[in-house]
Amino acid sequence: MEHLINARASNIEISGIRKFFNMVAETEGIISLTIGQPDFPTPEHVKAAGIKAIHDDFTTYTHNAGMIDLRKAAAEYYLKKYDVDYDPDSEVIITAGASEAIDITFRTILDWDTEVILPGPVYPGYEPIIRLCGANPVYADTTTNNFKMTADIINSYITNKTRCIVLPYPSNPTGISLSEKELYEISELLRDKDIFVLADEIYSELVYERPHTSIAKFLKEKTIVINGLSKSHSMTGWRIGMLFATNNIAKHILKVHQYNITCATSISQKAALEALTVGFDDALPMRAEYKKRRDYVYNRLTKMGFDVVKPEGAFYFFVKIPVSGMKSFDFALSLAHEAKVAVVPGSAFSHLGEGYFRLSFAYSMEILEEGLNRIENYLISK
Ligand SMILES: Cc1ncc(COP(=O)(O)O)c(C=O)c1O
């Protein structure tokens, strides 16, 4: 029956990250610097709220958009932290992680043969959904601009098919973010154009240079903001995301969400309410720790002679492979086998990631130090 599988689904490739894992997972004694999730536990008070929800039998469906208290807390969080005002009744949807928010946004706004501009290299979670919608990803080359998407770069990729621009900042895999001025320039470029912005701000709390700015501050009427608690509150397994958009967009996304999952998990919603209120600033101590690790890794990598842009947010370095012409997959495989350190080949983040590797610093200092020692010895042996 495989020949009857929907062609767009059957053409989706498993992610480069997964392919690579499958090849190196068995390597004995390997240190992994690959992971894309925080290494801290979920805060105790947030866990307690989830446990209480079970004991209180809060185990039924909620409003499709999420509990109103939670939507109010989410709206307040965005207003207080990022100065963007959303109506909790009609402009906020609680989703099953940012992943579901990405899915229902694309399925609501994309038509067949439309185009989505993405800054390459980029998180691999967008392209398969875009393709499932029958639309096409267009990768804007940011490699010559320190991985920063600018209004000028976007402008050179816009066609009459462009339906959406993805602004995923701070970025996975590059750690780059955009300043208020850069976001304002993009908003001015798009002001009179019929183009949506999908702003994936899942790393907004993990910023090391300046406070995060949302493009929704300047372009709310065209922007769908996606965020969640996976990274800010170390809650990847709870599956809670947040989507913000003006009512005339959100009401259509809500239909897709409703027929997709009905509502986010009630128990996780209670934990999320605790996280966004009592745990409003739970990310701050984690941010301080990530910053220390970032500075340490940056010093080590630059001393080894690597060409690397210092990340301004998230917890990744996107590092240029020092051997010219070597494929990122081959380099990562060689590093895994000879140095026993796993990193993610840059090609997992679109063709524009070729020639790089991603190193995560969501690991303890001890693990980072050992991993970097091994990379250093590997380079010396070459
Ligand atoms: C840029 C980006 N967006 C979205 C996600 C998915 O987040 P969630 O766990 O909330 O589905 C990730 C996860 O790594 C990510 O890096």
TrEMBL record:
Cofactor(s) needed by this chain: pyridoxal 5'-phosphate
EC number: 2.6.1.-
Annotated GO biological process: amino acid metabolic process
Pfam family, one: Aminotran_1_2
SUPFAM superfamilies: PLP-dependent transferases (SSF53383)
Coiled-coil regions, chain positions: none
Protein origin, superkingdom: Bacteria
Domain Aminotransferase class I/classII large: 30-375
Key words of the record: Aminotransferase, Pyridoxal phosphate, Transferase
GO MF terms held by the record: pyridoxal phosphate binding; transaminase activity
InterPro entries recorded: Aminotransferase_I/II_large, AspAT/PAT-like, NHTrfase_class1_PyrdxlP-BS, PyrdxlP-dep_Trfase, PyrdxlP-dep_Trfase_major, PyrdxlP-dep_Trfase_small
PANTHER family, sorted: AMINOTRANSFERASE, ASPARTATE AMINOTRANSFERASE
Protein family per UniProt: Belongs to the class-I pyridoxal-phosphate-dependent aminotransferase family.
The protein's name: Aminotransferase
Organism whose genome encodes this protein: Bacillus methanolicus (strain MGA3 / ATCC 53907)
